[in-house]
Amino acid sequence: KKCDHDKKKNNISMAILYHSSSPTLLLTDLCLSVLFYSQRVEVRPRMACPFSVVVAIDFGTTSSGYAFSFTQDSEAIHMMKRWEGGDPGVANQKSPTCLLLTPDLRFHSFGFAARDFYHDLDPEEARHWLYFDKFKMKIHSTSDLTMETELEAVNGRRVRAIEVFAHALRFFREHALKEVKDQSSSVLEGEEIRWVITVPAVWRQPAKQFMREAAYLAGLVSPDCPEQLLIALEPEAASIYCRKLRLHQVIDLSLTEGEDLTSDTVCGFASDDFLRRSRHSRTFLVESGTGELWSELQTGDRYIVADCGGGTVDLTVHQIEQPQGTLKELYKASGGPYGAVGVDLAFEAMLCQIFGEDFIQTFKAKRPAAWVDLTIAFEARKRTAAPGRANALNISLPFSFIDFYKRHKGQSVEAALRRSNMNIVKWSSQGMLRLTQEAMNELFQPTITNIVKHIEELMAKPEVRGVRFLFLVGGFAESPMLQKAVQKALGRTCRIIIPHDVGLTILKGAVLFGLDPTVVRVRRCPLTYGVGVLNRFIDGRHPRDKLLIKDGREWCTDILDRFVCVDQSVALGEVVRRSYTPARMGQRKIIINIYCSTTDDITYISDPGVRKCGTITLDLPEPLPPPGAVGGAGAGAERREIRATMQFGDTEIKVTAVDVMSNRSVRASIDFLSN
Ligand SMILES: Nc1ncnc2c1ncn2[C@@H]1O[C@H](COP(=O)(O)OP(=O)(O)OP(=O)(O)O)[C@@H](O)[C@H]1O
Ligand SMILES: [Mg+2]
């Protein structure tokens, strides 16, 4: 309230600190504070892992899981115990990301258990239960994500998204804790566990913070110990693991000179046998150094990791720094919503085309269980789709689909199919849709084209040109359709490598990241970040419409003071420092708006493409009375200087602050969720 009042009364504060030759004022909505430049770079020493266990959670769009490792025995990574269920025709190592809440909003179940229970509910009763699946996508697609953002359950009821995520994380927490405790000889305290949650590298700051808040809500860690939780980037985690790979742990899709694409043997996992064997064991051993795959590597060689998941395809470009084996990011993370669910959506669109969109929507709403059945059937078939396949893929339509259609439309499913002129989909008398090879191609093609196009575009960037390896990871990388398409497009440009157990590379890498988060030593900024400031107005340089006269002085307003630029390399531990001074005596809070942009050619916060994306809050403690203090805020020597230190080289942006005079640390927080 008080600040609001001040804001109206005194839009621009008068406090100016002539610290540097060109005085700069900070432009804030709430209170105005002075700022002067001081930017320094320092590199943090490597820290030994102070935790005894690392538990990583891969929270996927379609499937999720966890893995852990004891720091005493960090070369062994243990995969989660399968706690229930499975699907016919689908070998899953993670659990489906499905959550079921009771009609009174309590947690009921997660994973196969949630899906199967929901499926078996009486349709009347099911309408009261809240079933969520594929809900991770919403976090990326929501542009104004906040703590209040809601998710819609299948029955249409809405719940705060943060609650949904917290329920799921709580479930993982309980399972992981139990399993870790079972395997540990000593008594484990909660604070001995470091948690890692993976998110797509293309997620923006609000989404990463959202995941963190959900983890706090779930009780994974306390907000007082933020460093106990790490947010890992999915392709980055995969890359950390890939650098450990040995030759027998990969499939190489590269095409050698003279080789053509007529044979399909390279696709479809020649080493199925190996996969089956390794799936029996839930413990994986990793190399202590860099794997032998890299023996032919030369200093400076670059590689791309493409995480082809259910929701997103996420790419990262790395270089291994020898001899330490640390990683350097060479180009900002890129990717998009081209995950394998694109194929599922194409199938749904095809059903709409045949049976009518209104019918499909009604069917989904009225017969949710049958819809789940249909999607399970499709999932199994989708996984067997391969480019060289001659015969059609059969997908059985649930009886209730056939029956519902007849009652709703007064005609048979078969008639609908005939009328739709869909020659590539046939009807089998055994109640099955027969998708021809052509139909399957059509379902996969848009998604696969997007992926290949994206990788090609990335490879054309100067920083990326000449990469030696392309690693395909994530569940979708198991698809022979995708493998073949990537091989065809890029098999002669670089070596295409698919690690065994591709679906688990992210989890394994996330555990390695938790054991040593300093392994990625340099990252690229995904965006330009800065704050709005006022500078001395210079005629001829600044436009007149930015002129602001205050107390006889001329200021240029709206200038963006850049902290970091898009695609800038930032080393771990490198910091950006700015000092701020409260404009008024007794001011207890400084709130600073952060702006971001996808480009770097910006001067003013009012330039096109610049958005306010978050705030930094500095909570000022009661100032210690300086000996014999007199005078107000402008009294030079007594002016408080709050030094804010911001880090952009981690997976999340961090801020800390100190009150310089008393050398006390100041509560500093950065918030991207309240816009
Ligand atoms: N053989 C296969 N053919 C086609 N698609 C496959 C195959 N195996 C797995 N998939 C697809 O891969 C996806 C699962 O991959 P993964 O577990 O890496 O995704 P996720 O982690 O849930 O998603 P994201 O990382 O995007 O949040 C599913 O959509 C699944 O249908
Ligand atoms: Mg994933």
Q: CATH homologous superfamily name of the domain at 53-234?
A: ATPase, nucleotide binding domain
Which band does the percent of strand residues land in? Answer: 25-35%
Q: Could you give the distance between the termini?
A: 19 Å
Helix proportion:
25-40%
CATH class identity of the domain at 53-234: Alpha Beta
The total count of helices amounts to: 16
Largest sheet: 9 strands, antiparallel, barrel
Q: Unreliable segments (pLDDT under 50, ≥5 consecutive)?
A: 1-21, 261-279, 631-637
Q: Structural class, please?
A: alpha+beta
Radius of gyration: 28 Å
Q: Kindly identify the CATH topology of the domain at 53-234.
A: Nucleotidyltransferase, domain 5
- By CATH, the architecture of the domain at 53-234 is named 2-Layer Sandwich
Mean pLDDT: 84
Strand order of the largest sheet: 1-2-29-32-33-34-31-30-25
List each distinct ligand once. Answer: adenosine-5'-triphosphate, magnesium ion
Using DSSP, what is the number of strands?
Answer: 34
Q: How would you describe the overall organization of this protein?
A:
- This protein is an alpha+beta fold and 675 residues long.
- Among the domains are: 2-45 and 524-624 and 639-671, no CATH class; 53-234, ATPase, nucleotide binding domain (Nucleotidyltransferase, domain 5), CATH 3.30.420.40.
- It is built from 16 helices and 34 strands.
- The strands form 6 sheets. Strands 1-2-29-32-33-34-31-30-25 form a 9-stranded antiparallel barrel. It has an 8-stranded mixed beta sheet with strand order 14-23-22-16-17-18-24-28, with helices on both faces.
- Strand 22 (469-473), helix 15 (480-490) and strand 23 (495-499) form a beta-alpha-beta unit.
- It starts with a helix and ends with a strand.
- Mean pLDDT is 84; it is low at 1-21, 261-279 and 631-637.
- The chain binds adenosine-5'-triphosphate and magnesium ion (MG).
- The site of adenosine-5'-triphosphate has 23 residues, from helix 11.
